[in-house]
Design goal:
The complex is a heterodimer of chains A (232) and B (801). Chain A has 232 residues and is an alpha/beta fold. Chain A has a single domain, classed as 3-Layer(aba) Sandwich (Rossmann fold). Chain A is built from six helices and ten strands, in the order βββαββαβαααβαβββ. Chain A has helices at residues 49-56, 79-89, 105-116, 121-134, 150-161, 180-195; strands at 7-16, 23-33, 38-43, 64-69, 72-73, 90-93, 168-172, 199-203, 215-220, 223-229. Chain A has a six-stranded mixed β-sheet, sandwiched between helices. A four-stranded antiparallel β-sheet of chain A has the order 2-1-4-5, with helices on one face. The model of chain A has no long low-confidence stretch (mean pLDDT 88). Chain B has 801 residues and is α+β, with helices and mostly antiparallel strands. Chain B has four domains: 1-55 and 248-388, no CATH class; 60-241, no CATH class; 392-462 and 657-801, no CATH class; 463-656, no CATH class. In chain B, 53% of the residues lie in helices and 18% in strands. In chain B, strands 2-3-8-5-7-6 form a six-stranded mixed beta barrel. A six-stranded mixed beta barrel of chain B has the order 13-15-20-17-19-18. Chain B is elongated, with a radius of gyration of 34 Å. Mean pLDDT of chain B is 83; it is low at 390-395. Classes of the chains: A alpha/beta (232), B alpha+beta (801). The A-B interface holds A 19, 54, 57-60, 79-80, 82-84, 86-88, 92, 94, 96, 98, 100-104, 107-108, 110-112, 114-116, 121, 160-161, 163-164 and B 3-5, 7-8, 10-12, 14-15, 288-289, 292-302, 379, 381-383, 386, 394, 801.
């Protein structure tokens, strides 16, 4: 008997109000993602990729349908509940890194542990340094983000996403702001994470990276028009 | 080791140190305002009472025909009486410069050393040992233009001018300062009274009551009991005075300082609002970071906690700076007010509870105001924060904005300034509120000053005479008028008799609530000559005295306040020379800066005083109203009267009276102006903060402007133009706010000083002055944000998140 999916979307729709007319960003999306999958979400601009990612991370709430991640009915949580859940259960990586500029790299990585009160206070820095070491930027730990290259900042952002050891990593075009060499490095990290049992959902429109994904979901006008194993 | 969230806060503070500093200054300004006024209030209310009570003031004073030790002993034995002493009071005048006389009030005590009721404290010199010795109250020394061991010339109603030696100076905190009243207070023994040619016997019984906390009605009952006993023992009882158990100016001081306290709290409230706008400006560039923190697990409460701690810390720091400065300023204000009121500050200490309250409101109020933007920022959803790109303009510009834009023609910088100003209407309202309140306060202080000056002018315009003379005895009118009208420089002379009076009672006693100086709280009767041109008060009800009003009276508003529920046509019962009289009220008049007075026809006055054809005083209009000239003419008129056998007991000039009144409110107006400057500072800082936020939010827009060719000057003009526009808009609101505020302050000042409200005057200078202040303030406040905006490189601005 197969294990239940980590992520399950049932009839999820999202409509945005606008002064002109309501804009439907997602139409009745049904989607299951298993634990340990490396999933790419692809599609043109305006296809609904970011909306889907925002719904998965609780950044936005669906207009209809249900979203269950692990055992959490995400669509039922309020903003406070979402924050607490997200901090422990989802690591988010942004295209523009979104490191807090006034904190050092290590402090940025420690911040989720601080907010979610995970790990003992004295262990947090050690864990942050371990994560940074895994990302190959341990020597940059006490520098401010502005002192790092784009690739180093994105690695730091991935370390931060892993701070509370979440089962799910969601990345919104994490390589979109990186050169091809650094982008490859970042994808290697994600592959390692998947190997270690993490589930990674990534928005991208870089077809060169398709070899890294086990599955690709294609969106068009808010509807899933393709869901296939990569390489097929 | 600090956790990352607090390290983040530290980093944010380092990046926004300008705004943090502004917040500290804003709150500190508010704290200084509240601390200074509340400190002054606490010290003054405590010390004015302590000073007054230290004299062991008489609870009641009874005028009797004569007294001796056995009578005093008998009074002491009466129910409710704690102590009693005999005393005297004598009015006269003192020559302060050759032929320039000032009223003199002499307090007579059996001995200086043994006086226990209404005591005075030796300030310098020594108690007189000879009959030509006199002690002067310390505020009277400068008015008398003399010094210890110098000789002064004094004249009393029944004696010739005599030389007295100033043996020493005393402090009598139960009296209004001599310079304010333009009266010299002296203290003598019966031997000196005799030396002056007056009856040395003591005609006043001073007494204190056992229940010192008794209300005036209780004291009055006790005093009436003594009066009954005096009558039963065959004594004639005159006026019974039950002074209010407080310093003559305590009510005025308390009202004024309370009003200032309200304004200072308003300043703190403005500081708190400014803190809120500055907090919003601090949070504006943090919006996306807050969103990021929420994506990694931060809850709204945790975000709020970070900024609440920051604002609380700022509040603590501001209070640490502002509280000592405010208390120091409050002590200085208390000292200068004490000097003005002739008080001795035994202690400048401030109670601990006041410190506690200052800390609580200094930290709590700004924090409470800042909680609004903090809560809004912390509770925004992650999606909103991550997609925040600054301000948006929803809908099109309103008609007013379109109209103003058209006025600016094709100048895009100015058009943009106008449209930007209304993009964030909540913030615009807050900034306008800050500036408008400051402006209203500023204009009010100028308006009150104008109203006070106008009152002085109107008071002068109601009285068309230059000098006034009181005689020792009633004189034939015709003789006196002939004598004086022949003096060169006299334009017109009228007989004016003045008599003190009181409300009649069924028991026949004359009970008044006047202060020991006999002036404050007194009610007087004045006989208005037919066809007089010397007094033209404004009629506010009924009519002025006419030839047919043979038995009617006209009262001024000050007197009306002593006669509750009296309407036109009602009869009032007054005691004139010990005889009750029922007098119908024909009219009520408004008079400026004068005391409670009942006006009647000369015929009625002569009938009630039983002095037909006689007058007790005159008023004189001179060819020249110049103060020096008036003084010279007063001397000439007195000379003429003396030569014709008329003894003058008092002479005064209206110019001198105006000078005395002019100084009364200086400290109040000065404090109001200081308060308005503090508020203006807060208001301008608020505008600066709003402009900083505006520039931060529009960084991308500004970059786009640069991309399409706008130069640094254009950017600066847009930002400065917006600030000036908001400033100018606020002046209109200020004007509207200032009207009720002016009415309120005029009312407080009027009631606190001479009775009726001052009468509202809107100064023509106030608005232009405030517009100028606002424009200069707006340009100053927007200088940094506009400079910063013009310095942004396009790359920085477009990368701004």
């Amino acid at each position: 008997m197969s294990s239940p999916p980590l992520i399950s979307l049932n009839g999820v729709a999202k409509t945005y109000a606008s002064m002109a007319a309501p804009v439907v960003a997602l139409h009745e999306v049904n989607l299951d993602i298993q634990q340990g999958e490396f999933v790419a979400v692809i599609g043109k601009s305006g296809s609904g990729k970011t909306t889907l990612i925002n719904l998965l991370t609780g950044i936005d709430s669906p207009s209809a349908g249900s979203i269950r991640i692990a055992s959490t009915e995400v669509h039922t949580l309020n903003q406070e509940g979402l924050s607490a859940w997200r901090g422990r259960s989802v690591g988010i990586v942004f295209q523009f890194f979104q490191l807090l500029p006034s904190l050092t790299i290590a402090e940025n990585v420690m911040l989720p542990m601080d907010f979610c009160n995970t790990y003992a206070r004295r262990e947090r820095r050690r864990r942050a340094l371990d994560l940074l070491d895994q990302m190959g930027i341990a020597e940059q730990a006490d520098k401010l983000p502005t002192a790092l290259s784009g690739g180093q900042q994105q690695r730091a952002a991935i370390a931060r996403a892993l701070a509370n050891d979440p089962p799910l990593i969601v990345a919104d075009e994490p390589t979109g702001n990186l050169d091809s060499h650094t982008a490859e490095q970042v994808m290697e990290f994600f592959s390692h994470l998947v190997s270690a049992g993490k589930t990674v959902v990534m928005v991208t429109h870089e077809r060169d990276l398709s070899r890294y994904f086990a599955r690709s979901i294609t969106l068009r006008d808010g509807t899933i028009v393709g869901d296939e194993a990569s390489g097929s | 080791m600090l956790s990352p969230r607090w390290r983040k806060l530290r980093g944010d503070v380092e990046q926004a140190n300008g705004r943090i500093l502004m917040m500290i200054v804003a709150i500190a300004v508010g704290v200084i305002a509240v601390a200074s006024i509340s400190t002054a209030y606490t010290i003054l209310t405590r010390e004015i009472e302590r000073n007054y009570l230290a004299t062991n003031p008489a609870a009641a004073l009874i005028d009797v025909d004569s007294s001796d030790p056995s009578l005093v002993e008998g009074v002491r034995a009466q129910p409710g009486i704690a102590a009693a002493e005999a005393a005297g009071r004598l009015t006269g005048r003192i020559e302060v410069r050759p032929n320039e006389w000032v009223p003199l009030l002499l307090f007579v005590v059996p001995t200086f050393r043994d006086t226990r009721i209404s005591t005075v404290r030796l300030d310098s010199g020594r108690w007189p040992t000879t009959s030509d010795g006199i002690m002067l109250e310390r505020t009277a020394v400068s008015v008398a233009n003399t010094a210890i061991d110098q000789t002064i010339h004094v004249q009393t109603p029944h004696g010739a001018a005599r030389a007295l030696r100033v043996a020493g100076v005393v402090h009598d905190p139960s009296l209004a300062p001599a310079w304010q009243e333009q009266t010299v207070y002296g203290y003598v023994t019966p031997a000196t009274v005799s030396f002056l040619g007056e009856d040395p016997s003591l005609h006043i019984l001073k007494m204190t009551v056992k229940d010192a906390t008794s209300d005036p009605a209780g004291v009055e009952r006790t005093a009436i009991g003594v009066g009954d006993w005096l009558r039963r023992t065959g004594h004639s009882v005159g006026e019974i005075r039950v002074p209010p158990h407080q310093h003559p100016h305590q009510g005025m001081m308390t009202s004024v300082v309370r009003m200032l306290l309200v304004f200072s709290l308003l300043t703190l409230l403005l500081s708190a609002i400014l803190t809120a706008t500055l907090t919003a400006s601090l949070l504006a560039p943090q919006v996306r970071q807050i969103g990021v923190m929420k994506t990694i697990g931060a809850r709204s409460a945790q975000i709020m906690q970070i900024y609440v701690v920051l604002i609380a810390a700022i509040g603590v720091l501001a209070v640490t700076i502002g509280l000592p400065l405010g208390i120091a300023a409050g002590r200085a204000l208390a000292e200068s007010t004490a000097r003005m009121l002739n008080l001795e500050l035994a202690s400048r200490s401030v109670p601990v509870w006041l410190y506690v309250i200052q800390v609580l409101i200094g930290v709590g109020l700004p924090l409470a105001a800042a909680l609004i933007p903090i809560k809004i920022a912390a509770e925004r959803t992650v999606r909103e924060t991550l997609h925040d790109f600054g301000v948006r303009l929803s809908g099109g510009p309103g008609r007013a904005v379109q109209w103003m834009s058209r006025l600016c023609g094709q100048d895009p910088a100015l058009v943009q300034a106008i449209r930007n100003s209304v993009r964030h209407r909540g913030r615009l309202a807050l900034t306008l509120g800050l500036l408008a309140t400051a402006g209203a306060m500023f204009m009010t202080s100028i308006n009150v000053k104008t109203a006070w000056q106008r009152n002085l002018v109107e008071a002068a315009s109601e009285r068309h005479f230059d000098a006034e003379f009181q005689f020792a005895h009633a004189q034939p009118k015709a003789d006196v008028l002939t004598t004086v009208s022949l003096v060169p420089g006299v334009r017109r002379v009228e007989p004016w008799s003045i008599e003190s009076t009181s409300l009649a009672r069924q028991d026949g006693f004359r009970v008044v609530r006047t202060y020991p100086d006999g002036g404050h709280g007194s009610l007087s009767l004045q006989a208005v000559p037919r066809d007089s041109t010397f007094l033209t008060p404004r009629i506010i009800a009924g009519h002025w005295l006419s030839a047919s009003d043979t038995d009617g009276v006209v009262v001024n508003e000050q007197a009306l306040s002593m006669l509750p529920r009296v309407s036109i046509g009602d009869r009032i019962s007054l005691v004139v020379r010990g005889v009750p009289a029922q007098l119908p009220v024909m009219g009520v008049v408004r008079e400026h800066l004068t005391q409670a007075t009942v006006y009647m026809s000369p015929d009625l006055f002569e009938q009630k005083t039983d002095e037909p054809g006689l007058t007790e005083g005159i008023r004189v209009a001179l060819e020249s109203a110049d103060e020096r000239s008036v003084d010279e003419h007063i001397a000439s008129i007195e000379g003429a009267l003396e030569n014709s056998g008329v003894k003058v007991t008092q002479s005064s000039s209206q110019a001198r009276l105006a000078r005395a009144l002019g100084g009364h409110l200086f400290i109040l107006i000065f404090t109001l102006v200081v308060m308005s400057v503090l508020m203006a500072t807060v208001g301008v800082m608020g505008l600066g903060s709003a402009m900083t936020i505006s520039v931060l939010e529009r960084t991308r827009e500004l970059a786009v402007m640069r991309v399409i060719g706008a130069g640094a000057w254009t950017i600066r003009r847009a930002v400065v133009g917006e600030a000036v526009l908001i400033g100018v808009l606020s002046t209109g609101v200020s004007l509207v706010f200032s009207v009720p505020l002016t009415i309120f302050v005029d009312w407080v000042v009027g009631i606190a000083s001479f009775g009726p409200a001052l009468g509202t005057s809107l100064s023509a200078d106030a608005m232009p002055l405030w517009v100028l202040t606002t424009v200069v303030g707006a340009v100053t406040a927007s200088a940094y944000p506009s400079w910063r905006a013009s310095r942004l490189t396009i790359r920085e601005a477009l990368a701004f998140q």
